[in-house]
Each structure stands twice: as C-alpha cells, then as structure tokens.
Amino acid sequence: MEQFFSLIVRFSLRNLQKIYRTLKVHYGLNDFSTLRCAVATTGTFDGVHQGHQKILSQLVQKAAKVGGESVLLTFDPHPRKVLQPDVELSLLSSVDEKIRLLEKTGLDHLIIQPFTKEFSRTPSLEFVREIMVNTIGVKHLVIGYDHHFGRNREGSFEHLKEFGPIYGFDVEEIQALDIDQVNVSSTKIRKTLSTGQVDLALEYLGHPYALQGEVVEGDKIGRTIGFPTANIRLQFADKLIPADGVYAGWAVHHGVRYAAMANIGRRPTVGSVKRSIEVHLLDASLELYGESLTFELHHKIRDIVHFDSLEALTTQLGRDKEQTQQLLAQ
Fold this sequence. Notes:
330 residues; alpha/beta; six-stranded antiparallel beta barrel; 11 helices; 14 strands; 36% helix
C-alpha cells in the first residue's frame, strides 16, 4: 500500500511540474548559463507547426528521461532575411507569437540568438564545439530531418554523428512529419495561406493561424449597414497575410473568444483598393479602438466580390454571417 501511494505522489508531482513549468527565455547566448545536461535542438521554428511539435515532444521526453533540461536555440531575424534581403519572405510568427506557442510544449529554455552576417560565417565545427557544447552544455542533440547548420549550411546529420563521440554528445534525427502524404514545413504552410487554404494550414500547424494587432479607426462604413468592424493594424511587419477573401473564425480579446468573420484584402464595393483586415464580431459589441485584437482563421467563406450597391453587399454579408455561424458550430 505504501508503494502504491508513493507512486501516486510521484506521478502527481511530475504532472504538477509539467503544468507549472515556465519557459525561460534568453535573449542571446550571452544571456544563457551553461547547463550540466542540455537536451537541445536548433532551427527557426517559424509557426511552430506539427513537424516542429514532433521534434519538441521528443526533446522534452528525452530531457525527462535523462534528467536534463530541454533547450531550443533559434534566431532573430529569420536567417533568410539577413542572407537574402532582396528575396521577399513573409513569416508565420513573430518572436512574441513564437514564444506563446512554445510555452505550450513543455520546453525548459528558449535562446533567441541575434542572427547577423558575421554569425552566419561560423564554421560548423565551431558552431558545435563552442556554441552547442561549451556554451549550452549539450549532451543530447535532437534535430529535424535534413537539418543543416553553420557557414553555408555545411553542417549535416553526418557531421554531427562524427562530432558526437569527440565532444561527448549523442544525436537523434527526427523524420519529417507526414499529413496526408505531405511533409509538413513552414514553406508549405505559407503556400497554403497564400492561396486561402486556411483549413489546411490549421491542420498542418496544429493550431489556428492568427493575425494580431491594434484596432485602429477606419472609414466606419460597416456601422451604417449593420456590420461594424474592427480594423486591425498588424504589430508584426513581416507577418504573412492570407489571400484576399472573407473568412470565418474567432476573435480573441483579453482571453475571451468571440465568433467572428473577417474581410481580408480590398473592399471594391466602397472604392478601397488598399488591403486591410476588418473583423466583425457576430454576437458582441465592444469598444476596441486602441486595444489589441487577435483573429484566428478557421475557414475561407468566399473571394472578394464587387457589388453594385451597399444593399447588395449587406445582403451578402447576412449570408456570410449565417455560413460563419454554421461553420463555427461544427
């Protein structure tokens, strides 16, 4: 009986530790103290999608098994922004959004290393020896499929297997996650969002794609036709905005979720060619100017259409509202 209660207590303590674990965020390697036993991975982890979650789950489990601490080394800005500044790249998550998503994984440490051209020239051997081993204290390294690192991405899984016995760590490669025979990646998710396939993006991400920003004043035409909207100005300039269209989803304000629909893109019926994000709360009326509002996209309802009159637009918005209610009820 005593052994039984001892097992119950240990099980409860483990779960309490898991529930109350706090992610420690370190802004740069200089802000990090070397660990006795680090179980680490590295990468950009843009969007923290299902493939990333698979790696992190293995990382956290491995750390618990060996009595170590889990560590993710990531970079800001995104390396491609530094190395290919002329190539347009929109991202799935800001640093703050990435932190919020990573807090849910059970990860112990997040190191956000400033990425510069000078840092990009770090040879793969120096990256492993000086950063992963001497600075972080890695004893176990978990990496994603086809991961490369160091100057000109010269480092590979094969290199890590060679370095491991020399510097005292083992390495495990996690295979790519397939969903419907598609390898999940940030690049593929960007493509699905750019074509308005937000339901598919949700499946790949494992969480709704969200747009967050400050509510600013618009032209207030929505109020005159019974569909007031909150005009969102994004806080993250590099945030990927999905294809133009009308979307069903949830608006989140101070932790409370409201059924909502959003017009993303142009508004040709009222003569506006500028892209905007306007959110209508279906069953709530809030004063939101100056407040932060998040819109989680779940379904695309239709493309943007030019209507001959505001009356025709209002009729269509009524149909959109009914469809949104039905979709969200499911």
